[in-house]
């Protein structure tokens, strides 16, 4: 039976996460912490399956967009159905219209269980990495790249809207949420200006294990001139100057230009994660 995680389950959950890490075909979005103290802080609201005193399954459901997102389900044997049924009950309780799950591309077992439970694949997100190296590339003539010190939410939203093709997650944020996000010491935003007008942006998040490009976009009329590459080069230089051991970038499967850019610059494909969604009545 699925039941709320208790403090004494943390060791068992850690063993389950380590079991997942041992084989990419078991991977799914799950808590990132791999030590008991840190894990304890991050799994509030998690649910577990217990069998013979051992934790053999885990799931959590959190608000996400207009619905809920799952961590897991992660399970060692039998079926994921009880964990997915828990998610349905949570959706019902909170009035969520959609549930999202994020299995690794090679996690066939979970993908089959998700399909059987009424989830459908929406898209794949590819994650590429590179170790520190010189990626410097100058912007084309007349274009300048600068770090944004004081965010104007209107300018950001206009630029984001102009350069974004399909994934307008940030546009749902309030001006205050945007200002707070870009004031974080680990978040860095650069704009590319052409004749004084912002025409492209790159968002970088720095951390001890990797720096990550959260978003890269160039307005369609000025694409194909080297601005995207120059923005990425600036973000890489900033990240490596700060000592980041790796730089991660991402693209969805339909973002062919970005994938071509990462491959052209020699980034290595590290991960492919699917987004599945289940529409609820
Ligand atoms: C990805 C993106 C930022 C590229 O910006 P850009 O300014 O047009 O790219 P550049 O002119 O600097 O191109 C650099 C390299 O990328 C690759 N590339 C870019 N556009 C390409 C296209 N249409 N077809 C094939 N390769 C392309 C090429 O390798 C190119 O180098 P090359 O011309 O020397 O071969 C832009 O297409 C964009 O904003 N896309 C939508 C948002 C997005 O997908 N963001 C990424 C996920 S966060």
Word description of this protein:
- The protein is an alpha+beta fold and 281 residues long.
- It has two domains: 2-124, Aminopeptidase, CATH 3.40.630; 132-245, 3-Layer(aba) Sandwich (Aminopeptidase).
- The protein is 31% helix and 33% strand.
- The protein contains eight helices and twelve strands.
- A hairpin with a 4-residue loop joins β9 and β10 (211-218).
- The longest helix is centred in the last third of the chain and has 15 residues, at 227-241.
- It is elongated, with a radius of gyration of 21 Å.
- It starts with a strand and ends with a strand.
- The model has no long low-confidence stretch (mean pLDDT 94).
Which features does this protein show?
single chain; Aminopeptidase; 2 domains; 12 strands; 31% helix; binds coenzyme A
Give a quick summary of the entry.
The protein has 8 helices and 12 strands.
Topology pattern, helix = H, strand = E: EHHEEEHEHEEHHEEEHEHE
The number of helical elements comes to 8
Average of pLDDT: 94
CATH architecture heading of the largest domain = 3-Layer(aba) Sandwich
Major sheet details: 12 strands, mixed
Q: Count up the domains.
A: 2
CATH class annotation of the largest domain = Alpha Beta
What is the strand arrangement across the widest sheet?
1-2-3-4-5-12-6-11-10-9-8-7
Could you say what the CATH topology of the largest domain is called? Aminopeptidase
Strand content: 25-35%
How many whole angstroms does the radius of gyration measure?
21 Å
Structural class determined from secondary elements: alpha+beta
Q: How would you sum up the global shape?
A: elongated
Give unreliable regions as ranges: none
Give the name of the CATH superfamily of the largest domain: Gcn5-related N-acetyltransferase (GNAT)
Q: Whole-Å distance between the termini?
A: 25 Å
Which ligands, by name, code or SMILES, are bound? coenzyme A
> Based on DSSP secondary structure assignment, what is the total number of beta strands?
12
**Percentage of helical residues?**
25-40%
């Amino acid at each position: 039976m699925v039941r709320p995680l208790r403090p004494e389950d943390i060791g068992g959950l850690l063993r389950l996460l380590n079991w997942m890490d041992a084989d990419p075909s078991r991977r799914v979005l799950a808590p990132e912490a791999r030590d008991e103290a840190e894990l304890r802080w991050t799994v509030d609201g998690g649910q577990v399956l217990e069998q013979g005193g051992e934790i053999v399954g885990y799931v959590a459901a959190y608000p996400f967009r207009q619905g809920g997102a799952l961590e897991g389900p992660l399970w060692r044997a039998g079926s994921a159905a009880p964990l997915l049924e828990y998610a349905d009950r949570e959706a019902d309780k909170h009035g969520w219209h959609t549930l999202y799950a994020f299995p690794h591309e090679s996690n066939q077992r979970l993908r089959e269980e998700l399909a059987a439970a009424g989830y459908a694949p929406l898209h794949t997100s590819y994650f590429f990495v590179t170790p520190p190296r010189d990626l410097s590339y100058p912007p084309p003539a007349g274009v300048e790249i600068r770090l944004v010190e004081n965010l104007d939410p209107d300018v950001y939203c206009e630029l984001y809207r102009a350069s974004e093709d399909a994934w307008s997650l940030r546009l749902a944020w309030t001006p205050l949420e945007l200002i707070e996000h870009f004031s974080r010491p680990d978040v860095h935003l650069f704009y590319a200006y052409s004749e004084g007008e912002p025409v492209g942006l790159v968002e970088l998040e720095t951390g001890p294990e990797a720096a990550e490009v959260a978003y890269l976009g160039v307005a369609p009329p000025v694409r194909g001139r080297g601005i995207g590459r120059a923005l990425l080069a600036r973000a890489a230089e900033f990240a490596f100057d700060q000592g980041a051991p790796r730089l991660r970038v991402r693209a969805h499967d339909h973002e062919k230009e970005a994938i071509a850019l990462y491959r052209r610059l020699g980034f290595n494909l590290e991960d492919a994660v699917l987004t599945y969604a289940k529409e609820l009545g």
